[in-house]
Amino acid sequence: MTAFAETLAGLTAWLKTESPTHAPAGVNKMMDLVTREVADAPIAVERIAGRAGLGDVLVLRAGPEKNEPAILVMSHLDTVHPLGTADHDLPVRLEGDRLYGPGCYDMKGGAYLALQAFKEVARRNAARRPLVFLMTPDEEIGSPMTRPIIEELGRHSAFALVTEPARDGGKVVTGRKGVGRFEVRVEGRPAHSGSRHPDGRSAIREAARQILRIENMTDYPRGVTTTVGMISGGTAANVIPQHCRFAVDLRVTNGVDGEAYSAAILGLTPHDPDVRVSVEGGMNRPPYEKSDGVARLYDHARSLAGELGFELGEVPLTGGGSDGNFTAAGGVPTLDGLGIDGDGAHTLHEYGLVSSIEPRRRLMVRLLETL
Ligand SMILES: [Zn+2]
Q: How many secondary structure helices (H) and strands (E) does the chain include?
């Protein structure tokens, strides 16, 4: 088999191994494939059992055994696509340069190419620092289980490289907004909507006012957005509703705004004194700001890409969070978007561009060798 055919076969097998976050058996099969992939390389594999219905975690270690901060590579092997997607809605197939399949772009393509690079550098013993590769099962739901693992590994790392999808024709990501999540519960007073209307205190009416208050916090020039994306409440058309609840998504560009807007949302008070409003939640992913360290890391990657013959652009701020937010917020220079190029993340037309695999694998090799 040619190297290209081998890559295609390997990645295709990964795509056919469906691994939605809440199907731990599938995620664990992915962890098995990774373990098999590195079995004949000088790579130590630590497997941490999943908890709370989530799959396992892999920590791969290679490189010199020095007591020095490592290069941390991070990939998630869970996807958002439910089981069966590969059989019907998004069959794994190659059309021209596009490899379609669940999670090809976000982010099995990136995980695959980074693993090949990791293996190569480990085999040649070419790294200057210890290398750590973290494969996680829960990124798509905000990394509730692996966040402490990421933060702990981050404390022992000099750099973090994240294989989330490339953007806009191959750009890497050097900044991400922070993400806050909140749950607002409103409790009013129920009453018959016909005979007892004045006695009722509508939780939905109060929620409507609160929702507008929250949505009005959006400030585009400041880079702050607030979204109420889910709502439920009421029991029947002829009952003044006692309960209403809704979910809030907050995005900010810096930690100061994260605290200020979280405080504003947590501090919401009812307009109607007879209604109760309670809010839970907070920042789920801290902002990943483009620090000087991030800028230097990007410049380094760009010059390596130049040596390899391609231009490496950057997206200096994107609204979506990733595990890179945790390392960046911990002060570790972090470069994200090192994965495969393509499009359609989280949709049924998701694909990766196979022509982007080899240049980006080489870039990863050079990063692991030179950082
Ligand atoms: Zn992803």
A: 9, 18
Q: What is the DSSP letter of 356?
A: G
Q: Compute, in angstroms, the gap from residue 239 CA to the centroid of ligand 1.
A: 43
The residue to which tokens 């231009």 are assigned = 311
Percentage, residues of the chain above pLDDT 90? 97
What is the CA(199)–ligand 1 centre distance, in A? Answer: 49
Ligand 1 mean position to 191 CA, how many Å? 46
Name the pTM for this structure: 0.90
Q: At what angle do helices 3-16 and 357-370 cross, to 10 degrees?
A: 90
What is the per-residue DSSP string for 191-238? Answer: EETTTSGGG-B-HHHHHHHHHHHHHTT-BGGGTBEEEEEEEEE-S-TT
Q: What angle do CA 358, 359, 365 make, to 5 degrees?
A: 90
Phi then psi for 150, rounded to 5 degrees? -60, -45
pLDDT, the chain, mean: 97
Q: Please report, for residues 24, 26, 84, the alpha-carbon distance to residue 348 in angstroms, rounded to integers and kept in the order given.
A: 22, 19, 12
Distance from the alpha carbon of residue 163 to the mean position of ligand 1, in angstroms: 8
For 115-137, what is each residue's pLDDT tens digit?
999 999 999 999 999 999 999 99
Calculate how far, in angstroms, residue 345's C-alpha sits from the geometric centre of ligand 1. Answer: 8
The type of residue at 153 is L
From residue 109, how far is each of 141, 229, 279 by CA, in Å?
19, 30, 39
189 closest CA partner among 177, 204, 179: 204
pLDDT digits (tens, 9 = 90+) for 272-322: 999 999 999 999 899 999 999 999 999 999 999 999 999 999 999 998 899
pLDDT tens for residues 188-242? Answer: 999 999 999 999 999 999 999 999 999 999 999 999 999 999 999 999 999 999 9
